[in-house]
Write a structure and sequence with these properties.
Structural class: mainly alpha
Shape: globular
Largest sheet: 2 strands, antiparallel
Strand order of the largest sheet: 1-2
Oligomer: single chain
Helix content: 40-55%
Number of strands: 2
Order of helices and strands: HHEEHHHH
Length: 180
């Protein structure tokens, strides 16, 4: 038996800027894959008249990229401030983008497991908003740190294993920052 074919296969139109960053293996905010970010990218694409090109360095060579690929959105919401619904909307889109950018399969699977672990964590459905915020801060900081470690050549770790000690420290740190 095989699964029922998907009759509602919608292509997500993602910001050129975000695709360029993810293609390079850089950290990029999940905002670009939220419904809001996807609508913004589609709107900007359909209304832009700026087809200008600018030079960019890539692997030591100069390449020409569109000006829109060089500009971040003015409306980006940092991952730490995402609502659970926005996060959940973004994950399937970014996983598809990782696959389309030919990320190694083990990295795509690790990222998918990481985001699944975030959504399965006990803080995800907590009534405690500080715990939920700590989870989003943890997700953002771990993802940024891993991308930075890769860029520095220090290697990286398996994000799919949520470190509750680090997460608890972020909860305490978040509470402390609220009071100062």
């Amino acid at each position: 038996m095989h699964p029922r074919p998907d009759m509602n296969k919608e292509e997500a139109f993602v910001s050129e800027f975000a695709v360029r960053k993810i293609d390079k293996g850089h950290f990029v905010e999940l905002y670009y894959w939220m419904n809001t970010g996807l609508k913004e990218a589609l709107f900007l694409y359909s209304t832009r008249d700026d087809e200008g090109l600018i030079p960019s360095k890539q692997d030591g060579a100069t390449v020409w990229i569109s000006t829109t690929a060089s500009k971040p959105s003015k409306h980006v919401v940092p991952d730490r401030f995402l609502l659970p619904i926005d996060f959940a909307q973004a994950v399937p889109h970014i996983v598809a983008a990782l696959e389309e950018c030919d990320w190694p399969n083990q990295h795509v699977i690790m990222m998918a497991r990481f985001w699944a672990a975030i959504m399965m964590h006990r803080y995800w459905n907590s009534n405690d908003q500080i715990a939920q915020r700590a989870l989003m801060i943890y997700q953002e900081e771990q993802q940024r740190a891993r991308h930075n470690a890769i860029a520095l050549g220090n290697g990286a770790w398996d994000l799919s294993i949520v470190n509750d000690t680090v997460l608890s420290c972020q909860s305490v740190s978040h509470i402390a920052s609220k009071w100062h």
